[in-house]
Description:
Blueprint: H1 9-17, E1 27-29, E2 33-37, E3 46-51, H2 57-70, E4 75-81, H3 86-94, E5 98-109, E6 122-126, H4 130-144, H5 151-162, E7 166-173, E8 176-188, E9 191-201, H6 210-224, E10 229-235, H7 239-245, E11 249-260
Parallel strand pairs: 3-4, 9-10
Antiparallel strand pairs: 1-2, 2-3, 4-11, 5-10, 5-11, 6-7, 7-8, 8-9
Amino acid sequence: MRTSTMWTDQDVLEAAAQWTWVPDGSRVRDGDLTLIQRPAWVRGHVAVERVASDRPAAELVDEASDVARAWGDDALEWAVPERDDAAIARELRSRGAEVIERLDVLALPLVGASAPQVPEGVEVHRVESRADVLAVGAINAAVWDNALPDDARVEEVLAELRRGTGFRVVASLERRPVSTGGVTLAPGPRGTVARLWGAATFEDARGRGAYRGVLAERLRLSAEAGATIALVKGRIATSAPILQRAGFRRYGGERRFRLPL
């Protein structure tokens, strides 16, 4: 039974460290290095998502590179949290890796908090239908370069939503779906964590409140589902400033490297 909903900084960082995106169909190698090869529709590379080893950085990068090559990839991505050993980042850079993304780890307590409101002129609803999934897929394809969902992928998403471990929402402007975002509900050290992910907005619709509407509805539904905190890894250049204006606090950061093999 939960005895307290007061999240400490360490609690938040622990919850962030436990968060790894593993969509259905992923290939995973766990151990002191957690490597993931996500399905083809994601259009990414083999990624190191977690390190639990004090072995030399060069040895770790060699091992991860060997796995990525064995899995048929020509590049390796690596998530490096601020609190991880800086030697890994130095080793990656020495081999020609570049930073492809900078993220802030942000959190907002939900117990007793008032969620932001959906801006006027924005309509947001929970993703439930085939048409909703196709609309979300079109947004993600434009923003993230994901493949458009085929019939099999649509059915996978609908089955995922029926499991009840999370949800997605879609926002519309003038009846046109333009923005989306998802939530996974997961256990944490101080109750249920609402992991906010996958926020994306068509470029021509940005600055009109659609993303803020997606955020507001996800927070409302998360609190309704019993989550005690919302956790997100926000892009410094895009969503992180909006999240901080909405009350989220920064607890750390993360850089994602890409190393050609």
